[in-house]
Amino acid sequence: MSAVADSDQAVPAAPRKERRRRASPLSISDKLVLGVMVGVPAALHIALVWIPAMLTAILSFSKWNNLDPIRDLQFVGFQNYWQIFTIFDNKLFPALFNNFVLVLWLFVCSAVGVLLAYLLDKNVRGTRWYQSIYYFPVVLSVAVVGFIWKSVMFSRDAGLLNIVWPGGPIDFVGDQAKIFEIDLPGLDFPLGLSRNFAALLLAMAWRHIGYVMVLYLAGLKSFDPSLREAASIDGCSEWQAFRRVVFPALKPINVVVAVITVIEALRAYDIVAALSEPRGTEVMGTLVTNSLLGEGSGEVGKGSAYGMVLFVLCIGFIIWYVVNNFREQET
């Protein structure tokens, strides 16, 4: 009986081993400073970027003239998108066409920047002077570049281009004549490149080429010279070594330049505003601004719809390019 009684008694549980917390190398003040350094920029980013982006998406489905109280805001569904995408609105497609031309042109300018970086990497005489001259426009804002080209280069009376031009004076900013036109099915009006927008492309190239040149020049300076020597030993020409060895090794810079080129082309507005937004130079940025503030203002819903189209174009390209880039790296 005693044995049974002893077996019925509860066996005491083994004491739990308490986990020792690892001593944090950060003190309370360090954590506080780190929280402030991370939290403040994150809060500003959310407040100044993502909250306005979400409000823009909401306003794109509404009708409001930004003068009446917010309680007069009316929900209209996809009416704003229907209006800007129908053939009766002749603003969206010409602006998209100009942005598309600007994307292609800036990629051509990026190729010129690569060429200049490759030549300057050869340590030609006066390399530092050339680098300073080519990079000088980059330190200027796009609006300042626009003012410089409007008053110094494009001026009809005293512009440098009109001085060296053998013919009569040319109105580079005001000439709305089309260089070429394209008839697309479904549109009642042709799309084309105007002469004043072509002049604007020259001003954009002046700044973009120097920026791309500096990025690639930094990459070429850090490039392993033994890879070039190996390519030359294998019998590769200068062009073959660059195309098959040097340029693929600069892939991180290629990604950055491609994304920057597309984003800069899509969000172009400052330089157009500096030229007083002449007819024929409309881009997506001018449509958004004019719908809210300038000509035809008071259409917050339509301006927000233009902004969302621009946002989708920017973020869509970035996501597609980054996903494909990481997929190639994993394989």
Folded structure, characterized:
- With 331 residues, the chain is mostly helical.
- It folds into 2 domains: 28-75; 89-330, MetI-like fold (Orthogonal Bundle).
- It has 14 helices and 4 strands.
- The strands form 2 sheets. A two-stranded antiparallel ribbon has the order 1-2. Strands 3-4 form a two-stranded antiparallel sheet.
- β3 (178-182) and β4 form a beta hairpin.
- α3 packs across α14, α4 runs antiparallel to α11 and α13 packs antiparallel against α14.
- The protein is globular and about 70 Å long.
Shape summary: globular
Round the mean pLDDT to the nearest integer and report it.
Answer: 82
Oligomeric state of this protein: single chain
Low-confidence stretches: 1-5
Strand content: under 5%
The CATH class assignment of the largest domain is Mainly Alpha
The number of distinct structural domains comes to: 2
Number of strands: 4
The DSSP helix count reads: 14
Largest sheet: 2 strands, antiparallel
Question: Would you identify the CATH H-level superfamily of the largest domain?
Answer: MetI-like
* Rg calculated over all Cα atoms: 29 Å
Strand order of the main beta sheet, please? Answer: 1-2
Distance between the termini: 73 Å
Q: Give the CATH topology of the largest domain.
A: MetI-like fold
Short summary:
Helix content is 63%, strand content 4%. By secondary structure, the protein is mainly α. The chain folds into two domains: 28-75; 89-330, MetI-like fold.
